[in-house]
Amino acid sequence: MNLKNKPHIAVIGAGAMGGWTAYFLQQTGAQVTLLDAWGPGHSRASSGGETRVIRSVYGPHDIYVRMVADSFKQWRAFEEKWKVSCYTKTGALWLFSVDDERYLRNSLPFLKRHSLPIRPLELEEVEARYPQIGLEGVRSVWIEEEAGFLRARRSCQLVADAVVSSGGAFRQTAARPAAIKNGRLSGIELSDGSRLEADAYVFACGPWLPKLFPELLAPHLQITRQEVFFFAPPPGEDYQYPALPVWVEFGPIFYYGIPHGSGRGFKVADDIRTHTRFDPEGDDRMPTSERLAQARAFLRRRFPRLAGAPLIESRVCQYTNSPDGHLVVDRHPEADNLWIAGAGTGHAYKLGPAIGQHLTGRILNGEAPEPELSIERLGKTTERLYNQFEVRE
User: Fold this and answer.
1) How far is 314 from 334, CA to CA, in rounded Å?
2) Exposed/middle/buried for 104, CB within 10 Å: 0-12, 13-18, 19+?
3) Which end of the chain is more exposed for a tag (fewer CB within 10 A), N or C?
4) Is residue 67 predicted with pLDDT exceeding 90?
């Protein structure tokens, strides 16, 4: 695509992937129209929560360690540019209640390559530094120093505002792909009955992607229901940063959480994908008593002083899961002006700036796609980044 012609590019979806892609496209010489059915950071979006963890341990997958390293730099740069706080560096405790540390140890060469410090802690040191944590069943602990949390909803809105302030446009409307003709998408059909035509299109619509591209993506992407809980910590500073960092427990169930600090309470969530199949548009978002009971049982074991803490907020969000846990960032196989970015599989938010730059280079400069992120590989692999998921009807 010729930058001299200032191509018009429509980006559908103002979440982490779409918003940052729109921003970098606009900065690099395109004319961008960013569209979203309910606005950046809306409640049903995968990027619509209050906070997200940013961490760089990714098993044997250097592509994501590299993306996180790039994203750390971008988050800091944009905080300075916009004079706002989006990223809170807390460090992350990795608690292993299983003997198998391969997922973390396989990341160590990549963390070293990208200058992301991590080190093991003795259990006695953890007990002394973090008396809030019960260490029952914990076999080993590591501290990842650059990790922390991001303010998700706020950042989506900031990025969309930056697209507009730099000359782009934002439209709050739903969009669907029109017909593909002669190897190109002919346009997008909007919910107000109008039609928009551009030189290129990026669909970054999270859990809506299987509906928008049913033949291409619906057989491969599964949308699962994920429940997140916020508990009220006791008065004082014991359960907020800096007294407590972000934490991740790698065990029979993958739990993670964020200390009190965003005004929402002490966040607890699991990362398993065994929940029911979920419709992001039509299904209710009330938490279940079963998942709440499991979260409370976890608190009793790992954060015993919070065992009776009242639930002050909860959210039901969704993961858009690919078969192997990798993202999809690729050109549509039948349309050379149509790009798809999605399949966040619960880990894409932190990577938003890197994904935006990655996709911008491929759209405007013709850079080669990453094989791990291709559409072609869907359905051809049984590898898992970590926990396998089974979807119940």
Assistant:
1) 41
2) buried
3) C
4) yes
